[in-house]
Amino acid sequence: MMKYRLLVLDVDDTLLNHEKKITTRTKMALIKAQQLGVQIVLATGRPTCGVVPLAKQLELDKNKGFILTYNGGQIINMQSNEVVFEKRMDAEMLPFLEKKAKKNNCSLFTYRDDTIYTNDCDNKWIRQEAGLNGMQISYVSQLSESIDFNPFKCMLVGDDENSLIALESLWKKRLAGTLDAFRSEPYFLEIVPKYIDKANSLSILLERLQINTENIIAMGNGVCDVTMIQLAGFGVAMANAKESVKACADYVTESNDKDGVALVVEKFILSDLRMNEIPLEQINLSSKHALVGNLGIQFTYASEDRVEAAMPVDTRTRQPFGILHGGATLALAETVAGFGSMILCKPDETMVGMQVTGNHVSSAHEGDTVRAVATIIHKGQSSHVWNVDVFTSTDKLVSTVRVLNSVMRRK
């Protein structure tokens, strides 16, 4: 069994580069890790609506992934949309927060669904927060009178960092037992329910999934990530993290602009793969909504030198007169050979091209199931060559296909 079963990632300045994007290398590494059975949790201070698009980009909704938002205030199962856990503030605390915000010349805002409610819709940091998360801004002169829901958290915004530092220190004492206060940015002071942080909420998820802390990797860059980095069996800090965060980690990877997340996945997850542990059931499930799934292709065996898969001859794969379509046969051959090269590629390698040559020998008819057997006949530094034979259920040879996959080392 693979050592690490769960990968927990902070989002901003960890998963995302300075352009707020997921690089191709990082995306490929994370999708491959999920295909091999590792579940992913995006753990962030962002509101839920600001994380869902990123989670879908990484296919968490197809691979039993989770998002932990509002710094732990809510956990959602991306595959089922089930709310696994949530904890909110009591709205009765808003008058106190609003009074103190005005006294300290700070703006105040909170979230609900895809909207930010604030008493200062022109504040540059609030507008930046809305843009980052794809949210609209709604102006309310008095939050305490207008908010009729219990929020996940509230944010004080100010340009005087010293003032926010003083408030943070004061509120940690004054609000003890009711709310927690911490600065997530020099200009943000976050107010959340008591005991809400990434590690505490993650512990609830771990208990639900029956995963031990030694089987998780947690990665982050900020002070808010320290507790989950310390909780994890393998805690990782980014090179762009503060020194206090690095001091709490087991390992420091490259920065978010140098694919630090991908490097960890490649070195500590993908390189740990053993061929007899390839989770075909998980791979078949994750391919359900792709072309592989649409054609009914199911992997049945995989090793370093051999991959097998089955495909039904039905309305999806036959010609109008009930004979297996040659294009579907080639798609089956490409699928097994491509998966074989994915297994063979080292963590720092990737496939960049494919050349397919097929010879159709005989026919298969509707109602039959064909079986593709791919065997490696050449494994070079820049290419893999596979021979793929496709048989009927009675072992009649239908097609023989040669697949050449080009391989490059990632830069």
What key attributes describe this structure?
14 helices; 411 residues; six-stranded mixed sheet; alpha/beta
Describe this structure in words.
By secondary structure, the chain is α/β, with parallel strands linked by helices. The protein contains 14 helices and 20 strands. The protein has an eight-stranded mixed β-sheet with strand order 5-4-3-2-1-12-13-14, sandwiched between helices. Strand 10 (179-185) and strand 11 (188-193) form a beta hairpin. Helix 2 (24-35) runs parallel beside helix 11.
From the helix content, strand content and strand pairing, which structural class follows?
alpha/beta
What's the helix count? 14
* CA distance, first residue to last residue: 30 Å
Q: Estimate the global geometry from the Cα principal axes.
A: elongated
* Biggest pleated-sheet summary: 8 strands, mixed
Q: Segments where pLDDT lies below 50 for 5+ residues? A: none
Helix content: 25-40%
Q: How would you briefly describe this protein structure?
A:
This protein has 411 residues and is of the alpha/beta class. Helix content is 30%, strand content 29%.
Q: Topology of this protein?
A:
Blueprint: E1 6-9, H1 11-15, H2 24-35, E2 39-43, H3 52-57, E3 66-69, E4 74-77, E5 83-86, H4 94-103, E6 107-112, E7 115-118, H5 124-133, E8 136-139, H6 143-146, E9 154-157, H7 161-174, E10 179-185, E11 188-193, H8 198-209, E12 216-220, H9 226-231, E13 234-237, H10 243-246, E14 251-252, H11 260-268, H12 280-286, H13 291-294, E15 298-302, E16 306-312, H14 326-344, E17 349-360, E18 369-379, E19 383-391, E20 397-409
Parallel strand pairs: 1-2, 1-12, 2-3, 7-8, 12-13, 13-14
Antiparallel strand pairs: 3-4, 4-5, 6-7, 6-9, 9-11, 10-11, 15-16, 16-18, 17-20, 18-19, 19-20
